[in-house]
Amino acid sequence: MRRIALATLLALGLSSVGWTAETESAALEQVDRIHHFGRIDGWRVIDRDTLIVWTTPSRPYLIELKRRSPDIRYSEAIGVTSTGGTTYAKFDSIRVRGLDYPIEAIYKLSRDEARSYSG
Questions:
Q1: Residue 56 β-bridge partners
Q2: What is the rounded average pLDDT of the residues 82-99?
Q3: How many whole angstroms separate alpha carbon 77 and alpha carbon 5?
Q4: Can you tell me the distance from the alpha carbon of 100 to that of 87, in angstroms, rounded to the nearest whole number?
């Protein structure tokens, strides 16, 4: 969790100076699922095990993978597994070049937080 929150804060241009547990817990709201009805509007890689996925132009989510994907930075497309148009943390996966990477956690982001990442 600390790795994700730190990566997000750095991606948002925030300094790690003054980093505290309170900053970490306040940084992101964890959710257990994403409703997208089988359609993902866009995505952006943060690092080998973290990406931002938009279910609509106004609904971004930060996704932490259970293990690193060495190819995700170079992939032109990804797949997202789902059941009935809903993707669940700890159950579904991100598919990169034919390999599945289980989703460890999902965090809600605001549009401004997602847009401010300049990766």
A1: 59
A2: 95
A3: 25
A4: 14
Token pair for 10: 């750095």
Give the whole-angstrom CA distance, residue 52 versus residue 116: 12
Pair of tokens at residue 104: 């460890």
Average pLDDT over residues 32-44: 90
User: Phi and psi dihedrals of 88, rounded to 5?
Assistant: -110, 140
Instruction: Give Cα 23 to chain centroid, integer Å.
Output: 19
The C-alpha atoms of residue 90 and residue 34 are separated, in whole angstroms, by: 12
Phi, psi of 67 (to 5 degrees): -140, 160
Which residues does 109 contact at the CB level (< 8 Å), separation at least 6?
A: 8, 28, 52, 60, 61, 62
Cβ neighbour number for residue 102 with a 10 Å cutoff: 14
- This prediction has a pTM of 0.76
Q: Which of 51, 76, 69 is nearest to 61 (CA)?
A: 51
